[in-house]
């Protein structure tokens, strides 16, 4: 663990004894590894707003950052972080000011700006992030709270909190006041307006090995605003991390549209044409998607038929015709239909969408379930499905636990990508006749619904669960197909 080498950043931190989001060497190391990997901060200047005891400064400077600036209003924290960092570095400064004052007076720009545990202390989160975006050259990293009343992953909400805590430098004490919690989908929209794009979905630190420490990023919790409040049981952990890269903004706040007089004409000669397909505000696998399913998969998924054929070939090479196969996210039953036509008889699907189940060619073989079905499955196909599942690691573990020994998993997902690769992908859609309006509308509708993770996340997570012989058997832009055995 990185912070095992610098224990003073733990022992001097007043948060090391709190009940929620407790600071330990493991929790600090895991958070920094995923939020600020060395390849993103090397040779960069770092601004840390709400820097507390300067642990982020120690991480960044040790991993090649050229300069670190921490901004901290609490005197004891600023003084102690300055003292500890001075033992190792001279290319840093700790500014003892509140964030608003600093941003009003600052005339510098920084490559990477970090906001860990800061955003929920502000009601005007757009205003704060706007000022931050104006002084950041490359990347903004945010660690903040899920709204307590968030129900779905795609809910774009900001919840005003009557009693929000900010820890003080005195052990087990906190400041309490009005705050706000912004959902991941809402944060993505706000940041896109400001010219910063989330290309990776949510970032999940490795689960804590020390089970005596509450894991704020991976464990679902019941939360009240203060001790004694009634608890709300959520579907989400306590906190989340998102990273945003500077890019061209595709969205505008309507007040700016009005101010700039960018009015749409109501005349038929200049009105924008209605797109061929009207998308839902948020992507849902409903009857309208089921009705146009073949068009969807062929126009938006590269190598759709090739991957299904490859799955059948892999099964044919390794198993007999009575092999027990399940297709995760079986949709209208295309894959099951091909397997049955090739002589495989023990074929099933699992679905969560009633519309897809109703449209399936093989309803009698489909299991309706939000979780992976119990069984002793020889082959699991999970093509273009897991990227819709938030608790992806748990779902992969459930797959592994319900596979036969030496069973085979083939998994295809849309994985984390760069802006260049996204441009290639959009060209692929255009070549299939997808319009610009359809491309933009679908991208918006998938925010907070389809969350990509990196190839390395899949590799590391699958290896940790116990999968072996993990290989890429098909790759096209950001869509990768993985083969693995139990």
Helical residue percent?
25-40%
Strand content: 15-25%
Radius of gyration: 24 Å
Any low-confidence stretches, pLDDT <50, length ≥5?
A: 223-233, 265-280
State the distance separating the first and last CA atoms. Answer: 29 Å
Rounded mean pLDDT score: 87
Strand line-up across the major sheet: 3-2-1-4-5-11-8
Overall morphology: globular
Tell me the structural class.
Answer: alpha/beta
Number of helices: 18
Strand element count: 18
Largest sheet: 7 strands, mixed
What features would you describe in this structure?
- It is built from 18 helices and 18 strands.
- It has helices at 8-11, 25-35, 38-41, 55-62, 75-86, 99-105, 125-134, 184-193, 254-259, 287-291, 293-300, 304-318, 334-341, 354-359, 392-401, 419-431, 436-445, 455-465; strands at residues 45-49, 67-71, 92-95, 110-116, 136-145, 158-167, 174-182, 196-197, 222-223, 232-233, 239-246, 325-328, 347-351, 366-368, 377-383, 403-414, 468-476, 479-485.
- With 486 residues, the protein is an alpha/beta fold.
- It starts with 7 loop residues before the first helix and ends with a strand.
- A 7-stranded mixed beta sheet has the order 3-2-1-4-5-11-8, sandwiched between helices. A 7-stranded mixed beta sheet has the order 14-13-12-15-16-18-17, sandwiched between helices.
- Mean pLDDT is 87; it is low at 223-233 and 265-280.
- It is globular, with a radius of gyration of 24 Å.
């Amino acid at each position: 663990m990185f912070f095992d080498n610098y224990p003073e950043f733990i022992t001097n931190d007043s948060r090391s004894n709190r009940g929620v989001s407790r600071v330990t060497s493991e929790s600090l190391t895991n958070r920094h590894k995923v939020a600020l990997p060395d390849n993103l901060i090397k040779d960069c200047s770092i601004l840390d707003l709400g820097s507390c005891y300067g642990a982020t400064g120690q991480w960044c400077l040790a991993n090649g950052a050229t300069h670190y600036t921490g901004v901290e209003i609490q005197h004891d924290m600023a003084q102690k972080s300055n003292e500890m960092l001075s033992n190792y570095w001279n290319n840093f400064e700790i500014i003892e000011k509140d964030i608003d004052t600093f941003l009003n007076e600052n005339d510098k720009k920084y490559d990477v700006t970090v906001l860990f545990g800061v955003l929920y202390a502000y009601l005007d989160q757009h205003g704060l992030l706007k000022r931050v975006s104006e002084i950041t050259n490359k990347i903004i990293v945010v660690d903040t709270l899920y709204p307590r009343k968030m129900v779905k992953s795609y809910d774009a909400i900001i919840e005003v909190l009557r009693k929000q805590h900010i820890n003080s430098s005195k052990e087990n004490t906190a400041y309490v006041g009005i705050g706000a919690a912004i959902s991941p989908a809402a944060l993505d929209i706000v940041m896109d307006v400001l010219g910063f794009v989330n290309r990776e979905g949510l970032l999940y630190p490795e689960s804590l090995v020390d089970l005596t420490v509450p894991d704020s990023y991976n464990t679902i919790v019941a939360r009240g605003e203060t001790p004694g409040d009634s608890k709300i049981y959520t579907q989400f952990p306590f906190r989340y991390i998102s990273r945003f890269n500077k890019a061209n903004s595709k969205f505008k706040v309507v007040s700016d549209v009005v101010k700039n007089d960018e009015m749409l004409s109501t005349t038929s000669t200049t009105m924008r044409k209605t797109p061929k397909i009207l998308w839902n505000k948020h992507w849902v696998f409903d009857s309208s998607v089921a009705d146009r399913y073949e068009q969807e998969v062929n126009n938006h998924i590269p190598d759709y038929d090739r991957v299904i054929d490859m799955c059948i070939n892999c099964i044919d090479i390794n198993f007999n015709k009575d092999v027990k196969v399940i297709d995760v996210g079986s949709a209208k039953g295309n894959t099951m239909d091909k397997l049955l036509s090739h002589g495989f008889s023990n074929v099933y699907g699992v679905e969560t969408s009633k519309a897809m189940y109703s449209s399936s060619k093989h309803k009698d073989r489909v299991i309706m379930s939000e979780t992976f079905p119990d069984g002793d499955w020889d082959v699991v196909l999970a093509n273009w499905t897991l990227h819709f599942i938030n608790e992806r690691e748990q779902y992969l573990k459930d797959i592994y636990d319900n596979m036969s020994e030496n069973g085979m998993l083939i998994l295809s997902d849309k994985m984390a990508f760069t802006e260049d690769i996204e441009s290639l992908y959009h060209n692929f859609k255009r070549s299939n006749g997808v319009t610009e309006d359809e491309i933009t509308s679908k991208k918006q509708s998938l925010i907070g619904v389809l969350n990509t993770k990196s190839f390395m996340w899949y590799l590391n997570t699958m290896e940790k669960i116990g999968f072996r012989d993990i290989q890429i058997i098909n790759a096209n832009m950001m869509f990768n197909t993985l083969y693995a055995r139990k």
